[in-house]
Amino acid sequence: MTKELDKIILRYKGKPGMLLGVIEEAQKLNPHKYLTKEVLEYIAKQTKVPVSKIYNIITFYAFFNLKPQGKHSIIVCRGTACHTRGSKNLLDFLIRYFGLNNGIEGQQSSLTTQDKKFTIKTVACFGQCALAPVVEVDGNIYSRVTEEKLKKIIKELLKKRK
Ligand code: FES
C-alpha cells in the first residue's frame, strides 16, 4: 500500500490541490472506498501536512469516507428544498427497506448494509434544488425522487449484480 501511496504523492507533488488529489486517489485504492487511520497518518508524514488538517479536509467533503462503504452508494439530499419535498420520508424508506435500525445523524454519518452491498448517506445540498427531492445513486443524480422510483433503481442495481 505504501508503494502505491508514494507513487500518488509523487504524481501530485507541487501541484495545486495536491492534498485533495492524493486523498481522493488513496481512497480509491481501498476496495471498500474508505480512508484508514494508517493511510491518513502515512499521507501526513510524507506530505508534512498535519494529520489534523487532513481530517478537516475529509470531514468537509462528503465524498471522503472514514468507514468501509458498500458496493453501491445512495445519497439522499437533506437540504431545505429536498426536505420540503419529502427527502426525510425517502431516507426513512431506505432505512426500513434495508432493515437498518440506526438512524442517520449529521452530515458525516452513513449506514451500510450487513452484506456490504449498499451504503446510505446524506448530503447538505447537491445544488440541484429545483429538482427536489434529489438522490444520488452510484454517482448518478436522480430528480423528483419518490419511493417507487427508488425501489425501481434499487431493483435494477440488484439485477445488474447477477
Ligand atoms: S436542497 Fe436538495 S439539492 Fe439543494
Task: Map the helices and strands.
Blueprint lengths: L1 H11 L5 H12 L7 H11 L3 H10 L11 E6 L2 H5 L2 H11 L12 E3 L5 E6 L11 E3 L2 E3 L4 H15 L1
Parallel strand pairs: 1-3
Antiparallel strand pairs: 1-4, 2-3, 4-5
Helix pairs in contact: 1-2, 1-3, 2-3
The structure holds FE2/S2 (inorganic) cluster.
The site of FE2/S2 (inorganic) cluster has 12 residues, from helix 5.
Structural summary, described in words:
- There is one protein chain.
- The protein has about 160 residues and is an alpha+beta fold.
- It folds into two domains: about 1-60, no CATH class; about 70-160, Glutaredoxin, CATH 3.40.30.10.
- It has helices at about 1-10, 20-30, 35-45, 50-60, 80-85, 85-95, 145-160, and strands spanning about 70-75, 110, 120-125, 135, 140.
- A five-stranded mixed sheet has the order 2-3-1-4-5, covered by helices on one side.
- The model has no long low-confidence stretch (mean pLDDT about 90).
- Bound molecules: FE2/S2 (inorganic) cluster.
- The site of FE2/S2 (inorganic) cluster (FES) has 12 residues, from helix 5.
- FE2/S2 (inorganic) cluster binds near residues 128 and 134.
